[in-house]
Amino acid sequence: MNIKVVTKILDANDRIAGTNRRKLKAAGIYTINLMGAPGAGKTSLLECVIGRLKGSLRIGVIEGDIAGTDDARRIALHNVPVVQINTGGACHLDANMIGEVLDSLPLGEIDVLIVENVGNLVCPAEFSIGEDMKIMVSGITEGHDKPGKYPLMFRQSSALILNKTDLLPYVDIDMERFRADTLSLNPQIKIFEVSCKTQVGIGEFCDWLRLLR
User: 10 Å Cβ neighbour count for 205?
Assistant: First the structure.
């Protein structure tokens, strides 16, 4: 019985996600679902990407958090369209939440929409929101065991951003194991090693993003 209930929820979500996808495609928008744990550096990465790409791509942002508007305020300082969604307790954004705010954005003025999902390594990977691509951010301070503990997010993501590499001298992490375990789950995933603090690797990631549209 529980399996049937879950299936119905996911089916309903997928139908709404399809509607979102058609609406975004009709507006010529490429949509990225940005996922990762709290503190992985998702918002910092967004700020770096906006700074690099704002002259060549028109970026819009949807910020997802359980509560608060701190991240949306940070993004708004970069003069790009941004909408905040507070889930009030839910550990992920779903398609219905996204559908309800799309008309709050100037869709005709956006080339790439980046949705920063709620900080969580499980639920965001399970719910489509109508995105073209899922990208995962993982701070190296989280450790190298994350692919084994949270395999679905690694399988679902088209790219993995290994962030905070400036801390490598101070963190006990096996980067080779992290890469090997990630690729064993998803051989097609693209891996970028970056530091939002020093900007190392950000240019390569942004060059890759430019080619997606």
Answer: 19
Residue with tokens 């080619």: 211
In this prediction, residue 19 carries a pLDDT of 98
Please write the tens of the pLDDT for every residue from 98-148.
Answer: 999 999 999 999 999 999 999 999 999 999 999 999 999 999 999 999 999
10-30 pLDDT, tens digit each: 889 999 999 999 999 999 999
Alpha-carbon distance of 44 to 63, in angstroms, equals 13
CATH at residue 168: 3.40.50.300
First to last CA, the chain: 42
Q: How would you list the strands of the sheet with 190-193, edge to edge? A: 82-86, 59-65, 112-116, 30-36, 133-139, 159-163, 190-193
Number of compact structural domains in the chain:
1
Kindly report the pTM of this predicted structure.
0.94
Q: Which residue in 104, 147, 152 sits closest to 128, CA to CA?
A: 152
Domain coverage including residue 125: 2-210
Return the structure tokens found at 191: 């891996």
